[in-house]
Amino acid sequence: MQQYPDYDQAYNGLGIALSSAGDGAGAKEAFEKALSITPEYAMAGRNLARITLAEHDWKRSDDLLRKSLQIEPVNAWALTNAAYSELQLHDFPSAINNAQKVHNIPHTGYENAHFIAAIALEQLGKPADARAEYDLYLKEAPTGPNAARAQQAVSRLAHP
Predict the structure, then answer these.
(1) How far apart are CA 83 and CA 117, in angstroms?
(2) CA nearest 40: which of 13, 66, 21?
(3) What is the mean pLDDT of residues 64-70?
(4) pTM score > 0.90 for this model?
(5) How far apart are the C-alpha atoms of 87 and 96, rounded to whole Å?
(6) Which CATH number fits domain 75-160: 1.25.40.10, 1.25.10.10, 2.60.40.3080, 3.40.50.2300?
(7) Cα 112 from Cα 34, distance rounded (Å)
(8) CB of 69 within 8 A of CB of 79?
(9) Mean pLDDT, the chain, integer
């Protein structure tokens, strides 16, 4: 990279390699460098967001994912994780908005967006809408990681 110090894709690739090798700090630095070269590099932003999500830096994750979605608005991973960050930040309307966008695109593996939307809808006092999202989650991921919690929520909402 000495020959091409402004090669954003090389820094992104380095970040991926460092992350795979377990060097989170090095990976983070490489992704930051890629973004400093090309701020609109959506993939580098998503890669950095993976790290900030693991660090529970919800604000930074949300900022990175929002920027990524301005460039690539139909990325199910970014939409789902933006919704999750927004849920953690108690920005329930934004969490619902991004989670519901996931349903309009192919989203196999990202069914959890419905679970996120349901929690946010409950927080906004919309139990019927929340139940509909829990039902969608259970329809799409009947054995998913949050299936038991979704079943409990459906039962609770059916018998307030």
Answers:
(1) 8
(2) 66
(3) 97
(4) yes
(5) 8
(6) 1.25.40.10
(7) 30
(8) yes
(9) 95
